[in-house]
Fold:
Amino acid sequence: MVAYFAIMAIKPIAASRLYQHIADEIGRLIDAGEFGPGDRLPGERDLARKLAVSRSSLREALSALEIAGRVTIKLGSGVYVRAARRTRTAASTGAKGEISPFDVLRARRLVEAEAAALAARHATARQIAEIGAAFTRLSAQMLGDRRLPDGDRQFHVRIAEASGNSALAKLVHALWEEQRHPLSARIEALFVTPLRRHDNIAEHRAILDAIRGRDPVAARSAMRLHIRNAERQRLALLRDQPGIFRR
Structure:
């Protein structure tokens, strides 16, 4: 199997395509018999190089394939092909129509930073109290290792609602709905560490303090930093913890 992989043509993935196309190409290799049930895929670095894609995009694709039942990801061991299940495909799991979790984070960074700045200007005392209550809830969930999504989501949605712009609030709500999809949930489970949860509390507190202090510049900066850190933390595992997927 390994020898055959070295000579089989692998199609480079165009940079403009999404992770679904990477998953399709890996699925093509599996369907062509390059890897059989139980076989371990090549290391992440090697596979990303052969496909001419980034390792972060490859990870999204592998997570989508796991959700589709094509592979099993074993932390610290590798990615293994599962037995064929014709009734369960990427399309049937909804992964085909799902927006990239990293694209969602980047969109949130743009939109929610401005929502926080507007909330610092326009939020009523009652709205600030509601944001504070959501912060208390998410802090308790994170510290208790019971990180339900409700507190975190509620904190960000309450800020958007306090912006005074109903269209902006609706957009933020839609972006958070995207994070409920299976691939986003899998990325979250793989990459959000206990340390990251503690850092999250401090970052959320900085956002809340800026809104309470009626400081739009600080609120915008704190929100932007928080969401950028969420993305960086996931990407950092590629450098700092290579054992998550064997090389």
